[in-house]
């Protein structure tokens, strides 16, 4: 069986996650699997397992975590937080991990694409005349793309 | 209740019965039952306790358990015989008198005048050199874990309720479309849980769950029992062997479920992450919650006791007030007995050291 | 941990042997035992302390009341409470001591699990106690100056773990977390946190960055090559292979009963059910008292290793000693066994059978009245019927409400006769409905093991339709194996009854507990059914 050497991993990675706002709870985990059981993503995609992600961070598997597409599947439903008996607050830990991943440039292409569209159009898709005509027919008001305050936010 | 089938299971429950009898037989111990502390004062080295006893309506010494009162009572269930035919007891909430009625049917029917419905509270003033608080624990209220459905979904019960049902031979599983009844035990309900302020191990739940599961299996051998746990605590000297035997009879699953729901067919479903690495909704006919020990209710009238970080009583430093048993921290029956001997000696030591004022 | 039956040293009941209830033999060797010795001194006892005293222990400060035999090892001991004779091996020869009480207060034998884990005790591998000592002595510098130190702990990977072990590991981690460069790993099967405060310590360890691995099936394997230690394992959650080369591998230890348990067990016949410890694993022995009066087991001698409980044990020993002295002065058990010397053939059955080690022998067997618990087992075991239970004289101030008699069953008029053990059967009987109770003639006995063949046969001869004997469950007998004796004896008797042409179902043995009256109720009903056809005129028949 392939053996990963823990000595070669980065024991400080968990502290990096813990220092991120929201990541403080990660070391409290005692692997009870309640979060995994509560996760609606894990129900349909068994490879996405909150407890495994925590475990990889704690062991220091930095690259495996940051380069993993699965970490972007979190739906932020907060189910895990509700059931966790040790206040790990995994949803917030996921934000911390994703922030670090973004800092390292490890965001999946699809998400990067969404970000670009969001920045350009203020929405996840282009809004053009075609969409507004359909809206008018249904009696809905027209919508613009970039809202003013959104522009300021960005 | 006794959990043995052929061999003692070391729970210690029978010893409580015997200790009570031994205590009642001792001429040097006065008992004031169904009573509570109203006020505690200390003057010098003497404690003055005001004890208020609930009205004693049925006198055990006069009662011969003939059952006439139960026959005469117009409200079914308001007065009941205990299951093995001892002195009856009145269930206050069912009794018509609690609703303002002036019914005296049971009292009138009793051939030995053993019932006095107009008995009133009695007050006792007790003076002592020391006070021992051993008020026990509060069973964890399982509705604090709403995702397990206690109080909401039929078929979800606590281990305490399961014990009662087993003792009264009333535990029935009604499997839907399934010949083999299935029971789940969920461990650590109300224990090891920082989220609800109960981050301690209640120390008895692994033991009692495995013993109850084994008893259940002995009574209904075709039952399939799954125990969901985090870790299993060592609860006696032959532990390794007991654990192995448990593993052969029961399905031990190292995962805490996230939810219990009612199934379409009228049974229950439990959501957990299984050993094959997938989340599954598994079917059960009953879900038993292994509830832990919550801290004791405050002892009214007693202000000198401190509480630790979890809320259990802390003994006051040499104030003459001592704490013993589960109100000091979760512990088993045997552990309580072990600790009691040490506390008794400490009480004696305290009384010897101090100035003993006159009690009168 | 020998499994061969020990020869029982009950010999030499010294004639005219004055009892001395002021001297206590403390078999010690650590701070807890020293504290116990000092505490006993405070209470007015004189102490013979055997074992290496802590450096702070100065026996001279106790007015000669503590005699310390350093480097002493208990080789043999016999006697009864008030008169124990101990042989202690010292570098200068064998020393004989007479004492009134014995307390086994030694620390546990600590055996590192090198063999259990297949690990060689080479460099980088250390056992837990030693490691903790080094940390507490401030030898942190010895750990090394590397950028990242990996320290691995093994705890209970062989399936045997104790809260005391985890407390020690948390003690180590408490010291280590102050080092910036230390990463700790704990490899175990189950986290043992069932003591007040341990869960909070476990959480603090995790928050400090310690990694815990809890294995279900395959435990980690240790590879040792060229001075490098590697732990190879499959992570229980990731199901992937890992290896860790720790700078230090700390192995946990077996906590075994100390070496003086064995010679003390030799004077307690019921120790065959308690070995390798001094008390049986039964809730009837929750504290320091053993089955033999005057012999006490503190902590490790009875399988308790967790430090705060040992402090409680010190108080419990003091209290139990004083209680025993009161009992010797004011009676004791309700009954005491007495031997008729002219009938005794010195077969030594009673000596070897008495679970409490209360019987010695010289020219005949002789029961020590301070040690006898009045269980009556010797009475029914004696092949010469040379022993009887007599009511101990009680002091006038005792007006206990319970009446206890062992009487011969007579004139039962076809009723059932129930011999009820006072520890279980009698209590269960008291909880039955008056209707059920009326069907049975109760005879309370001190132990089910006291019920002999002749008791049962006499009851049948005197007209009983059936006989029920109720005792405690196997493992819950106050006299350790009285219930087992009863079960065995009565099973043989059932066979004999059958061979004599009687219905063997007229006799049943019912193990039960005080809080299980329903078991007694079922047994009575069962006995009524099976005696129905053979006692046509019995009033019991019309009731079923």
From TrEMBL, chain A:
The keyword Iron-sulfur applies. Coiled coil: none annotated. Residues 19-49 form the 4Fe-4S ferredoxin-type domain. The keyword Iron-sulfur applies. GO terms for cellular component: plasma membrane. Pfam families: Fer4_8. It comes from the Bacteria. One of its GO terms (molecular function) is iron-sulfur cluster binding. Gene3D superfamilies: Alpha-helical ferredoxin. Keywords: Iron, Iron-sulfur, Metal-binding. InterPro entries: 4Fe4S_Fe-S-bd, 4Fe4S_Fe_S_CS, HdrC_iron-sulfur_subunit, Helical_ferredxn. This is 4Fe-4S dicluster domain-containing protein. It comes from Desulfomonile tiedjei. The lineage of its organism: Bacteria, Pseudomonadati, Thermodesulfobacteriota, Desulfomonilia, Desulfomonilales.
